[in-house]
Amino acid sequence: MKTNRSILLAAVLVMTIATACSTKTKYPTTGSIEVLDAGLNDVLAPDARIEIVGEGFEWSEGPVWLPGENKLIFSDVPENLIYEWTEAGGVNPYLAPSGFTGDTTRTGESGSNGLALNPAGELVLCQHGNRQVAVMKAPLNDPEPLFEPLANRYNNKKFNSPNDLHIDRQQRIWFTDPPYGLGGQDSDPEKEQPHNGVYRITEGKVELLIDSLTRPNGIALSPDESKLYIANSDAGKARWLVYDVAGDSLANGIILFDATSFTSTEKGLPDGLKIDSRGYVFATGPGGVWIFGPAGQLLGKIKLPEATSNCALTPDGKFLFVTMDMYLVRVSLK
């Protein structure tokens, strides 16, 4: 009996070690960390794990963490589909259709793009195909393509293709409207807006805030909501900009960083961005994710091999999820 017990204990130990090792190496890793300022050490370690946790997508976008469901959801824009990811279950379909509910054939990308949760815990979507910002009128744990438009026109003209959004503490929705969802983009005959705008929805009213950017894309407010950050996804004007929020308007717009010179050698453009509770900016752009400090200094980059589109932080601040072309990537943070 003693011998059998020893054999059993040894077997259990081997299984435990094997399980621990398989857990540690469950996902393949990719990319690297480029440190440009010592302040990056407050955000992530030089040997931070950059894990590929999902793959096989057409173009992944707009990730958001659902705290109550303990899962991440993200858009596959060309596929008109939202996926979910969990540690236990991996990647599975979550919602289809996600951005175009019509029965006609259309050009351009049809699916949802940016996603967010409103204070009521409902999913709010930027829908390329339906050309609107909408809320899903179904529970997060039982999603259905039941959409209520929150805004679909400005000056009685259809939006181009709402792209990314941020919901502030006053429940106002800030969003960008480039032409990426239209087959011909700026020259598409279906384009009705004379500009590619940045808007805000306040109690159902749509306000045009900026009409001078060529390709407004990612958008986020600082933790105190005093500054608005916007990415401009134009290879000729690849920039991140920051504006002061002055009451109901914006003022003192400046270029946070001009990455135009990087677009010829690195994959990707300034796209989605997120800001953590301390004011650190995580901005997808040429070559990966650019990380800026609260004062605007460039701290470093998460270097990735494919074009990155957007990112999301978990509420506990432990992980950054990045949508990277056909991949979903997870980066461990400090």
SSE map:
Blueprint: H1 2-24, E1 32-35, E2 50-55, E3 60-66, E4 71-76, E5 81-86, E6 90-95, E7 112-117, E8 123-127, E9 132-136, E10 147-151, E11 153-154, E12 157-158, E13 165-167, E14 173-177, E15 197-202, E16 205-210, E17 216-221, E18 227-232, E19 239-246, E20 249-258, E21 273-275, E22 281-285, E23 288-292, E24 298-303, E25 308-313, E26 319-324, E27 327-332
Antiparallel strand pairs: 1-24, 2-27, 3-4, 4-5, 5-6, 7-8, 8-9, 9-10, 11-12, 13-14, 14-15, 15-16, 17-18, 18-19, 19-20, 21-22, 22-23, 23-24, 25-26, 26-27
What does this structure look like?
- The protein is mainly beta and 334 residues long.
- The chain has one domain (2-332): Neuraminidase (6 Propeller), CATH 2.120.10.30.
- Helices cover 7% and strands 44% of the residues.
- It is built from one helix and 27 strands.
- The protein has one helix at 2-24; strands at 32-35, 50-55, 60-66, 71-76, 81-86, 90-95, 112-117, 123-127, 132-136, 147-151, 153-154, 157-158, 165-167, 173-177, 197-202, 205-210, 216-221, 227-232, 239-246, 249-258, 273-275, 281-285, 288-292, 298-303, 308-313, 319-324, 327-332.
- The strands form seven sheets. Strands 1-24-23-22-21 form a five-stranded antiparallel sheet, with no helix packed on it.
- A hairpin with a 2-residue loop joins strand 26 (319-324) and strand 27 (327-332).
- The chain is globular.
- The model is unreliable at 1-24 (pLDDT under 50).
